[in-house]
Amino acid sequence: MLESLHEWNLAPGPARALQSQLAQRLELEDRIDPVKHIAGVDIGFEDCGETTRAAVVVLRWDSATAPDLTVVEQVVHREPTRMPYIPGLLSFREIPAALGAFAKLETSPELVMVDGQGIAHPRGLGVAAHLGLWLDLPTIGVAKSRLYGKHAEVGEQRGDWTPLLAGTETIGAVLRSRAKVKPLFISPGNRITLETSLAWVTACLGKTKLPEPTRLADRLASRRDSR
DNA sequence: GCGACAG
DNA sequence: ATCTTGTCGC
């Protein structure tokens, strides 16, 4: 479609304007089909950054055997890097490759966890939120550091969390996913609330800092297991 | 004008 | 993000 051809080739100014527009289309209430498969997404780079590699890992969620998660499919997609990293415009650099990976997927996840911010973004459209609009799926942003918002100190215990604030509005949560480790920044992307996002991230937490979907996608995108 | 700044 | 070995600790 015409719009898609231009969406990924915008200059910084127009890109920021588009983010503000698209943010208004986000659904911040739960609209989630019964969850049977959860996908984790992450992007990596090769050839000194010339090639972008998107990785998607799909895990099976069994309410009966939960929190046991089994990998049912994993896909890697490579394509030329289209633009440099610019704080606040990460989605324009990573989403094209991510969509390529999803296109190769045979399984259809009902929930997606993305390495990056959801609505915890200057214009309310982090990579997880932007991808959620394109896939029309519930997405959760799971970032390893802060981009936007303020917060109090987080408790030391695993599971402790404190709201991430933009003025008086809560846009996410700073979660201590594991004791003695830097906290995670969780924020809803699309079709999900912060409360539900926290519940799913917590449910997918293994013994490491990152929830399984993102942890496995990270490993796959980081070049080690991808070949 | 001076910082801050996902991956 | 990426370049990179060993090493300290639960």
Brief write-up:
The chain is 27% helix and 28% strand.
Entry keywords:
227 residues, alpha+beta, archaeoglobus fulgidus dsm 4304 fold, 8-stranded mixed sheet, 6 helices, 28% strand, DNA-binding
Report what the structure shows.
- The protein has helices spanning 2-7, 12-23, 90-104, 127-135, 194-203, 212-221; strands at 37-46, 51-61, 69-80, 111-115, 139-143, 161-166, 169-175, 184-190.
- With 227 residues, it is of the alpha+beta class.
- It has one domain (2-221): archaeoglobus fulgidus dsm 4304 fold (2-Layer Sandwich), CATH 3.30.2170.10.
- An eight-stranded mixed beta sheet has the order 3-2-1-4-5-8-7-6, with helices on both faces.
- A hairpin with a 7-residue loop joins strand 2 (51-61) and strand 3.
- Helix 3 runs parallel beside helix 4.
- It is globular.
- The mean pLDDT is 95.
- It binds two DNA strands through strand 1 and helix 3.
